[in-house]
């Protein structure tokens, strides 16, 4: 098991791993486990997690420092949330999810990991959870909504600390089916910049997540 340029992310050959901060032997989505020098690691599948895809593609070096309070928008069943929680532990990951169906497994996952704090809410209404979350070091967003950039800016404006960082997994087809992807990305970048964020890089996530581009941003 070797280190990577990303703090706390490990690799064995081409495969990525995070140290398991859940109960020993706990699998979140059927991932394989491996023990190395007495530490249990969870395999991190870039086809299941856009953050793993971003790292496999060499992205986010400008902003990734590992630990920090994290606001995660679009937690779903907790696949990526669980790996991020491995990486930032003991710092908390506040996971916002609006679908009650997806929230149930997320809640169950949080019962096994003390630094995952799930909140059933709409990420378009940050005023509903801002007081519970407070200031964060990192915002990660994967909501597949038409107004993704606006949601990101509004959450950053109210909760991202000065100098904080952001990762927007932009689903190009959620914005529009008809306009070219590059135009959609250009507009999202402009919206982030207008919101006071500096876009440090842009990484297409194909072949792991088609129609997705990761925008790596930081508060100036
Ligand atoms: C692509 S899935 C996220 C997958 C997850 N990020 C992962 O990697 O494990 C998108 C999720 O965003 C949620 N979502 C969509 N719009 C939302 C909103 N406005 N507020 C909160 N969650 C939202 C959906 O219910 C869905 O669970």
Describe this structure in words.
This protein is of the alpha/beta class and 220 residues long. The protein has one domain (45-219): Vaccinia Virus protein VP39 (Rossmann fold), CATH 3.40.50. The protein contains seven helices and twelve strands. It has helices spanning 50-56, 79-88, 100-110, 130-133, 148-159, 172-175, 181-194; strands at residues 2-3, 10-12, 15-19, 33-36, 39-44, 70-73, 93-97, 116-120, 136-141, 160-171, 197-204, 212-219. The longest helix is centred in the C-terminal third of the chain and has 14 residues, at 181-194. The chain is globular. The model has no long low-confidence stretch (mean pLDDT 95). Bound molecules: S-adenosylmethionine. Residues 49-50, 73-74, 76, 79-80, 96-99, 102, 122-124, 142-145 line the site of S-adenosylmethionine (SAM).
């Amino acid at each position: 098991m070797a280190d990577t340029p990303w703090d706390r992310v490990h690799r064995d050959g081409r495969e990525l791993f995070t140290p398991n901060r859940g109960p020993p032997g706990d699998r979140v989505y059927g991932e394989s486990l491996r023990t190395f020098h007495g530490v249990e690691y969870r395999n991190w599948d870039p086809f299941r997690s856009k953050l793993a895809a971003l790292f496999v593609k060499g992205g986010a070096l400008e902003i990734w420092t590992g630990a920090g309070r994290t606001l995660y928008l679009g937690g779903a069943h907790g696949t990526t949330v669980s790996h991020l929680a491995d990486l930032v532990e003991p710092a908390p990951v506040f996971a916002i999810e609006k679908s009650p169906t997806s929230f149930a497994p997320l809640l169950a996952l949080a019962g096994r990991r003390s630094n995952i704090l799930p909140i059933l809410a709409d990420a378009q209404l940050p005023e509903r959870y801002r007081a519970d979350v407070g200031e964060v070091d990192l915002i990660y967003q994967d909501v597949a909504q038409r107004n993704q950039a606006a949601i990101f800016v509004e959450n950053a404006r109210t909760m991202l600390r000065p100098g904080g960082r952001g990762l927007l997994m932009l689903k190009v087809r959620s914005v529009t089916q008809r306009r070219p992807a590059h135009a959609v990305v250009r507009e999202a970048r402009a919206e982030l910049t207008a919101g006071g964020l500096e876009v440090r890089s842009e990484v297409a996530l194909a072949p792991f997540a088609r129609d997705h581009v990761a925008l790596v941003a930081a508060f100036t």
